[in-house]
Design a protein that fits this description.
Elements lengths: L2 E4 L6 E6 L5 E5 L3 E13 L5 E6 L5 E5 L1 H4 L1 H14 L10
Antiparallel strand pairs: 1-2, 2-3, 4-5, 4-6
Bound molecules: zinc ion (ZN).
Amino acid sequence: METERSCRECGRAVKWLTSQGGKKLLCDAAPALMKPAGGPLTYMTPEGEIRRGRKSAKGTDVGYVSHRCTCPAIRQRRKEATICEVPVLRHGHRR
Ligand SMILES: [Zn+2]
């Protein structure tokens, strides 16, 4: 069943889709033309198949991209998490 709603984090229209295997994926509500290329985005076809690829005007698939891949809020949080995990010298100390 498709339930359209707004992302709690960024307010964009999203919906839960269920794959053929019964896996639930929070996707952008609007489908995009996708090119199956192994990454970097995860998307679901209208048939419920989960694939990986990129957005492309010459794409051969119609896909609903996983909102985890497109949500600015989630991406921002992930970026921060990465920064926390990896010690990064942000400012070089020049003396
Ligand atoms: Zn979002």
